[in-house]
Amino acid sequence: MAITAQIEREGLLAVIRRRYFSSLSNAILSIVSFALLAYIFWTVFDWAILSAVFSDAGGPEACQQTDGACWAVIDSRWRLILFGLYPHEEHWRSGLACIVVVLMTVLSCIPRFWSGKAISIIWIGGFATFYFLMKGGIFGMPLVDEQQWGGLSLTVFIFVSTALVGMPLSIVFALLRRSELPWISRLTGLIIDSVRSLPLLTILFTFAVVLPFVLPDWASGDKLYRVILGSALFFAAYQAEIIRGGMQAVPKGQEEAAKALGIRYGARIRRILLPQAFKSALPATINQFVITFKETSLVIIIGFFEILASGNAAYGRGEWTFAYVEVYTFIALIYFAFVFSLSRYGAYLERRMDIGDR
Q: Do 137 and 72 touch, CB atoms closer than 8 A?
């Protein structure tokens, strides 16, 4: 915003001259840096576009005759990367389920739906639609077990499930930790600090492998849902501290005034404390969502066929083993699209709320 204002006030050429060519040393450094960036850009552009092979019509042999990228592996294996082990004839369900999640996320970002009731309806309804599309067994759709889920749809399912379970749990943790009863606040603090002191991979391994040995068969459940619970607990422990920090930023006089007016505890929390706490904690909350989405890749360690494992399988076959860079680049672009969108939306919310405060 500051640079834009300077350009409007002084002009583009004047800003460039002052920032990059104000002295001889700055001019030399700027020219060398621009030349290096141009060389890197041209090298990547030539590798990724000009000299690349995009179609798998010629097979792997066509890629070995050029120095460019072999995007033919994506053309040949994109279904495996995006859908994993999901039945081929039912891929439309997996793709439609991912579109439902994207639509659910977009609706959640529209200010018109920023109320507890509307957000709950959107997320619960969207998640239920996603689950029944993936699982099937209704409306004539064949049943597909969770063991056959994979690729991008499994990554999205783990992320959405973690957020859907972890966010309410984090609010409960934050409220319990600020309880006026010492034994409740201290016990909750012990749980939160214990979970935060452990690596996520340790928690996922414990829920996936160790927990069935200490629970009866009827209570152990499917491994996928145990992993989601472990991920949600880890998310809730960190998010609870973020929310509690936001609560501490709310002036105490507001809650005391609400008590004096006879407003009940639930209404005070729902209408006064939490809205302001989430507003103060917005940047850290967006960052926590970004971290959670990236950490879904850890489930590959405990045997799930998410998008990273699907990518490994895509180039793991003998004829495509040389194209691992292209496969990982494609997966990185998918992660970038999700994470960059979240971060830009977080920046938009910060600007919007700053404007509203003036």
A: no
Could you tell me which residues come within 8 angstroms of residue 259 by beta carbon, excluding any fewer than 6 positions away? 268
As beta bridge partners, residue 70 has 53
Looking at residue 4, its pLDDT comes to 61
Name which of 86, 94, 44 is nearest 69 in CA terms.
44
219 and 340 assigned to the same domain? yes
Q: Are residues 46 and 85 in the same domain?
A: no
Q: pLDDT tens digits for 10-20? A: 667 777 777 77
Q: Do the domain assignments include residue 67?
A: no
pTM: 0.84
CA distance 7 to 11: 5
13: containing domain = 2-50
Measured distance between the N- and C-terminal CA atoms of the chain, rounded to whole angstroms: 17
Lowest mean pLDDT among 12-26, 152-166, 324-338: 12-26
Bridge partners of 306, per DSSP, are 151
